[in-house]
Design goal:
196 residues, alpha/beta
């Protein structure tokens, strides 16, 4: 935090673990400015992870493997990624939709009665689908971590989450990636584990 202070950047106390873990994961101090937290985001995500036994759905196996398995097990949290799922591949081929979109659809069909935390670090189309399903009244995720990286449709897709009433943490701009999506969740998971 001392380096951030020297840069004239202050971070809300509640958000510090998330900001610091993202900086640590990336060596990029821009995350102190670019991470956008919906109202009470860290408190709400902590409550979901600690008490609701959610399913974390990632859009990459890298993010899936990066999210702490021991802490998830401790709190009864399931984590999944459907990007390599044969049904998703088949649905994508048949529909012409991306695997990320079909993965969101599969998660919604499987977990519609459970709290779902989406952790998106790669595919902007996953965020677009999440917003479409929410707007249609089909599904409301418990929380969205929106951190795809890149140039094509990344900022507009993140803005769809930022402009919605969904509880979220968004890595605004072009930066992000699977390690950032995992870092955001791990920051909250490790804080919970320390208190447990």
């Amino acid at each position: 935090m001392s380096e951030l202070s020297e840069m004239g950047i202050s971070v809300e106390k509640e958000n510090e673990p998330v900001v610091l873990r993202c900086i640590h994961a990336s060596a990029d101090f821009d995350y102190a400015r670019s991470l956008v937290f919906s109202s009470g985001a860290v408190r709400k995500l902590s409550s979901i992870l600690a008490h609701e036994r959610p399913v974390i759905v990632t859009d990459t196996n890298m993010a899936l493997s990066g999210i702490s398995a021991p802490v998830c097990e401790k709190f009864g949290i399931e984590k999944v990624c459907f990007m390599a799922d044969p049904e998703v591949a088949s649905a994508s081929k048949a529909s012409g939709l991306t695997r990320a979109v079909c993965s969101v659809d599969k998660a919604v069909s499987l977990f519609s009665g459970r709290p779902v935390v989406f952790a998106v670090g790669n595919a902007p189309t996953a965020l677009v689908r999440i917003r479409q399903l929410f707007d249609a009244g089909v599904f409301r995720p418990a929380f969205v971590v929106a951190a795809p990286v890149g140039f094509v449709n990344v900022i507009p897709a993140k803005n769809l989450i930022l402009e919605s009433p969904l509880d979220s943490i968004v890595a605004s701009g072009r930066k992000g990636g699977s390690p950032i999506a995992a870092a955001i969740l791990n920051a909250v998971l490790y804080s919970l584990a320390k208190r447990a």
